[in-house]
Design a protein that fits this description.
With about 240 residues, the chain is α+β, with helices and mostly antiparallel strands. The protein folds into 2 domains: about 60 residues, Winged helix-like DNA-binding domain superfamily/Winged helix DNA-binding domain (Arc Repressor Mutant, subunit A, Orthogonal Bundle); about 150 residues, 3-Layer(aba) Sandwich (Chorismate lyase), CATH 3.40.1410. Helices cover about 25% and strands about 35% of the residues. It is built from 7 helices and 10 strands. α1 packs across α3 and α2 packs across α3. The protein is globular and about 55 Å long. The two termini are about 25 Å apart. InterPro entries: Bact_HTH_transcr_reg, Chorismate_lyase_/UTRA_dom_sf, Tscrpt_reg_HTH_GntR, UTRA, WH-like_DNA-bd_sf, WH_DNA-bd_sf. One of its GO terms (molecular function) is DNA-binding transcription factor activity. Keywords: DNA-binding, Transcription, Transcription regulation.
């Protein structure tokens, strides 16, 4: 995790710890520099990150204000940090179905920008929020970038692990969404019926240098998944 990302996380934690509400003012830039012992450019980049994520908004000449006003139970849809980072007090658990080294299909290889002869980690799990089935996930990690995974790591937060233990910095993601109906396998994992409605999201996660390292396909339980999208400006 880069320094500005760490500072952004600490500022967001401060907002949560102080239970600051929409429109409440944060310390000015100079105070934040002193409080966290970092440069102006680091704080500025941290604030820009928080603004893009919909946590704060800045008014020139007036200050920095809290923006986030999430409804209970809603998760940020556009996040590159994984589910755990925006769940708040909710409890995320996983039933790990598979962690294995394999060769990618042509489709997976194309999405990851690798060859079908390269090794990937295949991860399959069902995820629960507060004990309720949330989604079924199938993910592929480039082994050259993520050299080791096991069931213990996968049962928790893979993104926390790759960032803290491996020093991998996540840059951006591309998401492809489709509303459809469950097949028999998906329905079984989600505890629903075949042909029940679902939202499927395919995501390609990239490093800061643009190289893909994770391709995931997530199928959501239509009754237990709610999302929020926060946009800057009048258009998304």
């Amino acid at each position: 995790m880069l320094k500005y990302q760490q500072i952004a996380a600490e500022i967001e934690q401060y907002i949560n710890d102080q239970d600051l509400k929409q429109g409440e003012k944060l310390p000015v830039l100079e105070q934040l520099m002193s409080q966290y012992g970092v440069s102006k450019s680091t704080v500025t980049k941290a604030l820009e990150l928080l603004e893009r994520r919909g946590v704060i908004f800045q008014l020139r000449g007036s200050g920095i204000f809290v923006r986030r006003h999430n409804r209970p139970g809603y998760m940020s849809l556009f996040s590159t940090q994984g589910f755990k980072s925006n769940l708040g007090d909710r409890v995320l658990t996983s039933d790990v179905l598979d962690v294995s080294i394999t060769k990618p299909s042509e489709d997976v290889a194309n999405n990851l920008g690798i060859d079908v002869s390269d090794d990937v980690y295949r991860v399959e799990r069902v995820r629960y929020v507060d004990g309720e089935v949330f989604c079924y996930e199938e993910s592929y990690y480039v082994k050259a970038i993520v050299p080791y995974l096991n069931r213990e790591i996968v049962a928790d937060s893979i993104f926390d692990y790759v960032q803290s233990a491996l020093g991998v910095t996540i840059g951006f993601s591309d998401m492809y969404m489709q509303v459809g109906r469950l097949n028999e396998t998906e329905a079984g994992y989600l505890g629903l019926k075949m042909d029940d409605p679902t939202l499927r999201i395919e995501t390609i996660f990239h490093l800061t240098n643009g190289k893909p390292f994770d391709y995931s396909r997530i199928t959501y339980h239509y009754g237990h998944s709610q999302f929020v999208v926060q946009a800057n400006g009048p258009y998304m």
